[in-house]
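Incident log, structure service

09:12 report received: a user says their structure output differs between two submissions of the same chain.
09:20 pulled the input from the user's history:
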Amino acid sequence: MASQFGWQHWFVGFAIASVAQTSCTHWAAQRYYGDAVEVARRPLGAPRMLDHTETTASTGELRVYRPLGRVGVEASAGTGQVDTHRERYCAQRVEITMQRPVNTVHDVAGRPMDVIASLGLMAAGATSLLIHGAQTADYEELKAFHDQHFSDPFFSGTEPQPPGNGAVFAGVALIAAGAVWGLASLLVLPTGPQPPLAVSKDRFTLQRNVASTGCSPEGGVAPEAGRSPAAQKLEELKRLRDQGLLTEEEYERKRRAAVEGL
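09:34 re-ran on a clean worker, output below:
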């Protein structure tokens, strides 16, 4: 039975070791990003007129405002009223390329897990030795009782067997392995010198609407160079119909008017 306990602690120790093996002390790369700056801008499509609505409502001492779809709350002494402000502005959808510096440094990682695994191995080994000591004490007690009553003809007990040495071997090996692991993590690992600082650049893109002056006063797209206003008008009517902003009858009526104006 004692030998079985010893092998159980072997398995416990190696389970701890295998789990912590993935976190052995090593150099881990950490990235630090600087401020991003714009390096390129590309328009997407033509400028368009967009609507912007801002509503302010106040009731008692509570004021709710909704600028550009965001909701906020602020204290106010207003007396219940609702103000709505609408405006149209010319905007261009653009794709902006941003660039930011990246500094990659290497720091020591995994050492806490190594220390925990080392202490776990040594604790498993110490537990194995304590179990063996308790079993040895039980054996000696039973052996003394057996020797005392062995000459009694009415005593039918069998002679107890001494505990095996498996728990001792396992305990010593686990303590030694834990100590070696901990010392290696503290004194030897990580292997090799610290990698030097690496400086690189990271690029990413984002899209947003920016103010533009390429829209016509009527709200459409300004005529492009080399194209007649009428052709531009026909194209704009088709776009409005495709978007469902004009019915088929309205589209045909306006299209005929534009064609007659050619």
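09:41 both user submissions now match this output. Likely a transient worker issue. Closing.
09:42 reviewer note: The chain has a mean pLDDT of 76. The longest helix spans residues 111-149.
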